[in-house]
Every structure is written in structure tokens, then in C-alpha cells.
Amino acid sequence: MPYLVVLGGGESGVGTAILGLKKGYEVFVSDKGKIKDKYKNVLKHFGIDWEESKHTADKVMKADLVMKSPGIPDAVPLVRELVKRNIPVISEIEFATRYTDAKIIGITGSNGKTTTTMLTYHILKEAGLNVGMAGNIGDSFAKMVAEEEFDYYVLEISSFQLDGIREFKPHISVITNITPDHLDRYEYQFEKYIASKFLITKNQLSSDYFIYDADDEVLVGWLDKHPIQSRLLPFSLEKIFEEGAYTSNDEIKITTQEDTIEMMKDTLALEGQHNVKNTMAAALAAKLVGIRKETIRECISNFQGAPHRLEKVLKIHHVQYINDSKATNVNATYYALDSVKTPTVWIVGGVDKGNEYKELMPLVREKVKAIVCLGLDNEKIKETFGNVVDLLVETYAMEEAVKVAYKIAERGDTVLLSPACASFDLFDNYEDRGNQFKNCVKNL
Asked: Which key words tag this protein in UniProt (predicted)?
């Protein structure tokens, strides 16, 4: 019986363990930290061997195959030793893809991938296709493959998940954009991060498709130097294509070999120019799998959007509170500030991933009246914006940050939580941070 070791007892790890067991592996789950009770209960239910708070090297090194959870860097000594011994180390996405014949739409990018994934899934599901949504969102892909029989998967995939692929091949791949993010995992080399994102196209053939933002110089520059096999379908707010998606006056045009769909911009449920692009990417993917024009139009006009992404929480005393906790990098916060039309009290901060805040400077000068820092280390934010805004306050808990923002904000203002940073200094994750924000606002 082949021996599968799963490093990490979270969503992707436990999903892989279940699928591995079903496919005839002896499975061992090892987590250096604590495993959450809900995952322990699942492992016990399936009778899967596990350990927490340590990695027992003897047990790990006996593996025929290792699935490494995306949160574990390649550089850790245990992973290096496995590679040195020629024990294959793969990602959950790679493991799961070996056990499904479903058509896969794989979506990655620094920003917009969750919204694009959810919208694509929404269109396919409403059109009546037998489709699952997984990856970096919701259930793990491996767990779905173990328990369901879908014809299509829409997968949100992070660069960390792509780093461990060998044969993974989506029929349709999407890169929404590439901006510096997670550089701490890529030795602070932007080129390595770009290469990681483009792994989504690595195994594609000429019968497959690649949808991408043709306004993104990073994407276009990489494609010029590294041609890929799949058929290119660009989208743009500035250029016009024979095949792809573009805007003309107030219209969006989605063109493939079959025909063209035309939609008015003002019918889109999602606001902001970046969401025009997310919609173009999702509509192109939906058109490639044969969804009817009417269904696509209808779905993009009634889509609710992703939680924690420019989510309007409440209006209190004519002040709008917006939860954009999912903005874990500078580029995401750029979109948020760009979409706000009123004077803004901006709640920002957390774990800095090598952020360069200067690109936000024009928007901060134009729109931000006060900054509320929410993080354990706010030095970089203070250095960058201290002389730019009239008021900068440091806080160390969400309740405190929201109360301070409430005192500062005046009629007609917006209070925007858009941290531009990871959440792990004060919160479990960005969802926890966003939920705490919403609760604190509701308690004002």
C-alpha cells in the first residue's frame, strides 16, 4: 500500500487525507501547529493517523508521496530534506486533479480572483451545469473530488498552490492581474512570483484557453518573453481585440470564435473599473463552455459579490462603513480607495508582506482625511503617510479602531477598512478581521 504523508492539518490537508484514503493510500497527517477540533474530528471519523505540534521525521521520511499544505514554504528544512531524498512533494491541487476527469477553469491573480471565481461559478451553476467551486475558496478541491462527481470545477488558486503542481492542466486558465504580493515567500524577487502565477498555463495545450488582462504590463511583458501553448483571450479597458473582451463607450463586448455578446456597463451588479475586468474574465470563461448570452447577461446583473470585498456594512449618521478586509495587499487597497467617492477615514495595517505604499499616495492625498492604524507594527505606514494626512491614530484592537473612526468621521464621509496587509498579527485570518469589523460597527 503506498504511503501518503500530508503536511498540514487544515482544509487542504484534511481534504487530501480523505481522498488519499479513498484511493488506497496509507495516510499520515502531520502538523507542526495545533489542528483545529473540527478537522481532528474528521480525521478520527475516517480513522486517519495524525499528529500535531511536531513533525516526526522518521514517519515523514518513509513517504512515497508528500502533499504539502500551501502555507508551508519550500524553504523549511523538512521540505528540503524530502526533496533531497527524491520524495515527491506536491500540492493538494496536483493530487486532486489526478482523480477527476472534470473540465477545470483555474483562476489566479494578485487581486480579483475570488470575485472572478465566484462570478464564473454563479454563471455556470445558474446555466444548469453540474459544477463545483473549490481551491482557495470554500471546501478543498481534494475533498470535493473524494465526495462529489462534478463535470466542471471552478478553482481559485493561489501562487502557493501552483508552486506544487506537476501535471495539473486547466482547460481554461485565468490570470486577473499580477502585482507585487507575498514577496516574502519568493525571496523578495518579483520575477519568481510572476513565474509562480504562470505555472497555471504550464501544461496547457493549443486546445486550451488562457484569459488575461492585456492592460497589465507585467502579464503582457512576461507573455512576450515566455510564449505559451494555449489560445490567448485578452480583456482590456483600453484596447480592442478580434477575440477577447473590451469596452466601447458604455458597452462591454465579449467576442469568441462563435459570436459576440454585448452588455451595457451600467447593468453590472459590481461597481468599479476593476470589477468590469473581473466580469469580462468570468463572461469569457462562461462563453467558452457554451453558456447562452441571455444567461450570462442575467447572471452578471444579479451577482451579489464576495464577502469582505468592498462590502457595504451600514450607514450610521450618514457615514458609510465599508468592509474590505480581503484587501491584503496594496493593489487591492488601491482599487478600494479608487472606488470611494467621499472623504475617507481609512483603517489600515497588519502584517506587512514587503508593501510599497507610495503608489497609494495620490489617492490618499485626494481622499483620505484620517488614517487609523490597526496592527502591531505601524512604522512604515506612519513614515509614508504621517505628513500627508491631518490625523493618524494607532490602535491595537478592532473595537478601538472602529470607535476612533466613528469619532473622526463626519456626515457624508466613508469609513473604509482596507488593510493592505495580512491579518495574522491580531486576527485568525481576513474573514475574522472583517467579521469583527462588521460586529463592532453594528455595536456602535
From this structure: ATP-binding, Cell cycle, Cell division, Cell shape, Cell wall biogenesis/degradation, Cytoplasm, Ligase, Nucleotide-binding, Peptidoglycan synthesis
277 known member of a binding site: no
Domains and CATH numbers, the chain: 3-90 (3.40.50.720), 94-302 (3.40.1190.10), 311-442 (3.90.190.20)
Give me the mean pLDDT over the 408-429 stretch: 94
The answer, yes or no, to whether residue 187 has pLDDT greater than 80, is no
When pLDDT is averaged across residues 15-34 and rounded to a whole number, the result is: 97
114 marked as part of a ligand binding site: yes
Q: How far apart are CA 257 and CA 280, in angstroms?
A: 16
Confidence of residue 436 (pLDDT cuts 50, 70, 90): very high
Q: Is 159 annotated as a binding residue?
A: no
Q: pTM for this one?
A: 0.80
Averaged pLDDT, 12-18: 96
Residue 387 labeled ligand binder: no
3-state secondary structure the chain: CCEEEEECCCHHHHHHHHHHHHCCCEEEEECCCCCCHHHHHHHHHHCCEEECCCCCHHHHHCCCEEEECCCCCCCCHHHHHHHHCCCCEECHHHHHHCCCCCEEEEEECCCCHHHHHHHHHHHHHHCCCCEEEEECCCCCHHHHHHHCCCCEEEEECCHHHHCCCCCCCCCEEEECCCCCCCHHHHCCCHHHHHHHHHHHHCCCCCCCEEEEECCCHHHHHHHHHCCCCCEEEEEECCCCCCCEEEEECCEEEEECCCCEEEEEHHHCCCCCHHHHHHHHHHHHHHHHCCCCHHHHHHHHHHCCCCCCCCEEEEEECCEEEEECCCCCCHHHHHHHHHHCCCCEEEEECCECCCCCHHHHHHHHHHHEEEEEEECCCCHHHHHHHCCCCCEEEEECCHHHHHHHHHHHCCCCCEEEECCCCECCCCCCCHHHHHHHHHHHHHCC
Question: Is residue 272 part of an annotated ligand binding site?
Answer: no
